[in-house]
Every structure is written in C-alpha cells, then in structure tokens.
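Justification of computing resources. Each target in the renewal requires a structure prediction run like the one illustrated here; the chain below, 364 residues long, is used simply to show the kind of job we budget for.
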Amino acid sequence: MKTLQLHSFHQSKGAKFASFAGWEMPLSYGSSIDEHLLTREKATYFDVSHMGEIEVKGKEATEFLSFVLTQNIKKFPTGKGIYSPLCNHQGGTIDDLICYKINEENYFLCVNASNTEKDFQHLLENSNKFECQVDNVSENFGQIAVQGPRSEEILCAVFGDKISSLQKMDFGSFIFNSFEVMVARTGYTGEDGYELYCQQNAMLGVAEALDNLSLASGAGWAGLAARDSLRLEAGFPLYGHELSEEISPLQAGLKWSVDMNKKNFIGKKALTEQLHDASMPVVKYFWVQGRRIPRAGAPISDSNSQVGRTLSGGYSPCTGQPIGSALISTKIDTKLGDCYFADVRGTMVEITTCAPILRELKKK
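Resulting structure tokens:
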C-alpha cells in the first residue's frame, strides 16, 4: 500500500484513511457531508497526489496525441488543458484524463491513479510510429486540488494576483518558495477551482500555506468521500463506474469529447458504429424516492424486466436525498423523468432519471 508524502500532515489534521487505487488516502477529516457543503459554499483542499502524470515530448507529440485521444489535440492552444477519453480499438474507455499543452512538442497528462501504468504502456506501445517520447513522471509530482467559490481568493494569497488571469482550463507556472508549481484552473467537483502540480519537496510548504489561510477564508481539508459525492452531484464520471473498457464515452454521455471529424484515432471505427446503434445502453443519472441508496451493481428494472444496472449510488448533501447513475438499455424509450426500480437488497426502490443534480441547482 502506497502512502502520500503528506500522510503525517493529514494525520495531524485528524484524517480518517481508506484504501483507494493502491493508496492509503484521506477519506474524511470529520463529517464528509460538511466537507461537501464547504466545497460548494467556500473552499476545500484535497490531496490527490495519487493521480498519475505522464509527459509526451517530441516533434510529433501533437500528431501522436491526436491519434490516441478522442479529442483533436491539434485544435487547442498552448497554455490550455483539455479533457479527453483514451479509448481502445473497440471504443471502450481505457481512461479519461486531462491533457495540458505546454507547447506543440511538450504535453503533460494527468491520469487516474488506478490506470497510470496501463495508460503508460498503452501510450508507449502506440508511440513507436511517431517521433515522440513518453515518460511516466508520477514519482516526481504531488497534487493538491483547491476547489470552491473562494479558491481564487485563496490562491491569490499564496501565489499572487496573477492567478486571477487564469481562465477555466488555463494553466501556468508559478513560483512558491523557489519551487516551480504548475497551477491549472481545473477540477472535478463542479465548482470553480484549481489543481496544483508540485514537486514532491514543495508539497509540505504548499499544504501549510493553504492550511494557514483556513481560518481567514473559512476553507478546510476534504477527503475522498466528499470528492465522490461532489462529482456525482455534478454528473462527472468516475473511471470504473460510469466509464470503463466496457462503457464508451458515447455511452457515458461524453459525445462532446469525441471529435468524429478527425481523420483517424484509436476507437473511431467502433465509436462510429455506436452512433448508429439504437440499442446501445447509455448512462443515466437518477434521484431516489425514499432513503435507501442503490449501490453499484444493483439491478434496474422497469415494470416488466431488468433493463440495466446501477453504476454509482450515494447521498446528495445539497438536496438531502439519494442519487446515482445507471447503465440503462435504450431498447426502451429512456428519457428524463422516467421511473424505474432498483433492487436494494431485495427491496424495489423507485428511481427517477434526471439531469445531474448540480446542473439543476445552478439554474435556480
């Protein structure tokens, strides 16, 4: 089991730990519901140093990444990050990641912790026809996410007012105690926020600087439990649940992240076929009538037969009700507001399909 460099720091903050993707990670520092709401209302800090980092460099780095990723890397500008699935030839999802363009010959990828080695090998195997180099640099970096409405204010206090010039998905290099820190205006909570990619020997100083601002800003540390409920409210997929090698980006509702106009990319043929497959199961989000929470794997039925399975289930602190996601067959006419039943340990619980909860809350 791997431990974070800041493990002792998190212990001193009262963290409760849990195993995740081969790492011992902070699960919460108290109430995960309070941490969730603090993220929505003020700001929280997440140590996500378990995430993987891969560099792609070389004359044909752009062409290579446009071939292996579903997004068109040739289109987006320097200084920007872009979310993209990484697919296999069957259209299944190997991973979903953020690709940061430092320049035309230098890219930095942030990948999911559990998939780092798999992603690295896949990229390495497919790079041999391109003039580029692929390196797994995960051991060199730690990462802290600062998320919530007050995140800009907090980071301006740490790095200076130039942080405000970063727009959504922008990134830049900033100096902290003589260390270079890559700050990206990205995140996975549904709130404005940033992700800080730090050299390992800079991590403690950055963590302490953020912690010292907690009293003035009202911010605090948050763990994996809040991170999961935040992303589920926002309708963001978690790899291994809403995305997998059996669930494509199109099935997950991520058509916007697949550029079908590209001449060629890994998985294009299979994804093109999926576009015309009216029977393809798709991911739907739902809310629950009552208090029982359908968990991953719980069968989903209509009034006649099983039509799918639960992918994620949890509690929405912002609405006070259970929510989740499911893979549901499109052989039936599935639309928002439709009712189904989830089998929760032998009890049939009514669920209603909906847009991600946070999207509806933001409209109000």
